[in-house]
Amino acid sequence: MPIKINCKVKNFEKIKDDIKQIKEGSEKALKDTVNDMKSRAPSWVAAVVVETYNIKKSEITPQNKNGKPKKMAGSITVKGETVETLQLIYTGRLLTPTHFSMKPKNRPKAKDAGTGDKHRSPAPYTVSAEIKKEQRKVLGSNVFLGTNKGGSDIPFQRVGKGRTPLQAIKTLSVPQMIDNETVKNKIRKKLDDGLDKRLEHNINRQLGL
Q1: How far apart are CA 45 and CA 57, in angstroms?
Q2: What would the DSSP string read from start to end of the chain?
Q3: Could you tell me the pLDDT band of residue 14, with boundaries at 50, 70 and 90?
Q4: Which residues 6+ apart lie within 8 Å of 168 measured at CB?
Q5: Average pLDDT value over all residues in the chain
Q6: Which long-range contacts (CB under 8 A, 24 or more apart) does 179-185 make?
Q7: pTM value > 0.90
Q8: Quick one: which of 174, 193, 179 has its CA closest to 44?
Q9: Taking Cα atoms as reference points, which of 47, 52, 57 lies closest to residue 132?
């Protein structure tokens, strides 16, 4: 004849409630971490990029200016609703050297030595830029500054033997800077460390640890 033995867990209902709270708290912690990453990760990426490249952090950190999106060197889309699917997608055009401390910033003005000639060429000058920090380079002996459609001076070079056609000098895009192997590895570490810290913080906060 079979013998049945019943057992009972002390405070079982409380334990079930605690487990439920842990589950709900963990889910909230994960959601909070995703939101943290969406708001903080772009700034972390920008901080790593400017360690190598001589571009202003503000140009690659998304933010609004007076309630309106400001003009930037690149744009970012943050996708994903879970930690596992979170993605930062950067896009951007090739930038002119004006973003990299170009010198001179404007075409030197010609000095009129009393001749009244308004079409005199300026004194010879060279255009340089510091794309990577502490690595200033001359852009070329045939590079000169001209005014673009927006009214700013940017560097051009002649294509061919004649005075025209002209071609604007371009450098790198924000995605290319991020894709630099050294920069990319630093970004991965920055994001991994940031993710770990935010997840730990949110778990402790939600579970009251």
Answers
A1: 10
A2: ---------TTHHHHHHHHHHHHHHHHHHHHHHHHHHHHHHHHHHHHHHHHHB-S-GGGSS--EETTEEPP-S-EEEEE-SSTTT-EEEEE-PPPPGGGTT-BSSSPPPPP--SS--TTPPPPP---EE-SBTT--EE--TTEEEEE-TTS-EEEEEE-SSSS--EEE-----HHHHHHSHHHHHHHHHHHHHHHHHHHHHHHHHHHT-
A3: confident
A4: 96, 148, 154, 155, 156
A5: 85
A6: 180/52, 182/52, 183/48, 183/49, 183/51, 183/52, 183/53
A7: no
A8: 193
A9: 52
Residue 119 or residue 209, greater confidence: 209
Nearest Cα to Cα of residue 157 among 146, 173, 138, 144: 144
Encode pLDDT of 118-170 as tens digits. Answer: 555 567 889 999 999 999 999 988 899 988 887 889 999 988 777 778 899 99
Tens of pLDDT, residues 21-37: 888 988 999 999 999 99
Query: Omega before 124 cis (within 30°)?
Result: no
CA–CA dist 26, 156 (Å, integer): 56
Beta carbons within 10 angstroms of residue 29's beta carbon? 20
Residue 144 is predicted with a pLDDT of 92
Structural domain spans, the chain: 14-61+69-92+173-207, 96-109+125-171
pLDDT > 90: percent of the chain: 48
